[in-house]
């Protein structure tokens, strides 16, 4: 028996004042592009308030005050990432039950990424600095929105064109990016010994070439997945990731150079080896 997704789609359709899926896709995509522009403008002024950029002189004082409310880093990472995993997993079950195995396989890498971020990465985070509740809430809402958006486009809309060659190239790009992302996260997680605080210069892996290979890997993931999904929502997500993490890579590179001065490797680029 096929599983119906109408109990999920219908309330959201009503919320957006839509009577069909075309309207819902269009309005959600429009809202996504508006949000991307806002994030671009914000990134020109200050980096998103988490990690080494938790406090910033450039950040509005009202945001600085909100970041005083914190929670466990492990719990925070789990809560903020898990909506995308749950929504994509439910969508995969629906697609399989509806006989759309190929489309379910397209959505699978998305679910695998968020399984890693929600569970494996969250468990690997060492008990240290808590994360701002504001950051967790914003990330939770983003993953909820994006998980729904990507699933909606794959369930209710055909891919723009069919190509097995592009599918394979996209999957290889995604896997390569995920490997870089996971390796870089592990290097960062193991920089400090138990009880140590402060920042250290990371070495090894793609850190030989760039300051933020974890961001480079994730950007590669979503451009690879964009080639697999081949719809307007996956393209938006790839552009958003490049914009948000590209800006954060620039701020990270500047942070390292200001903090470590001449000790920091001069031949490292922020994000793209030998280029930028």
List keywords for this structure.
276 residues, single chain, 2 strands, mainly alpha
Termini separation (Å)?
A: 52 Å
Can you summarize the main beta sheet? Answer: 2 strands, antiparallel
Q: What fraction strand?
A: under 5%
Give the SSE string. HHHEHHEHHHH
Rounded Rg: 19 Å
- Biggest sheet strand order reads 1-2
The structural class is mainly alpha
Give the helix level as a range of percent: 55-70%
Average pLDDT for all residues: 89
In the predicted model, the low-confidence regions spanning at least 5 consecutive residues are: none
Number of strand elements: 2
Number of helices in the DSSP assignment = 9
Sum up the overall morphology in one term. globular
Give a structural overview.
Helices cover 67% and strands 1% of the residues. It is mainly α and 276 residues long. It has a two-stranded antiparallel sheet with strand order 1-2. Helix 8 runs antiparallel to helix 9. The longest helix is centred in the C-terminal third of the chain and has 29 residues, at 232-260. The chain is globular, with a radius of gyration of 19 Å. The termini are far apart. The model has no long low-confidence stretch (mean pLDDT 89).
Outline of the structure:
With 276 residues, the protein is mainly α.
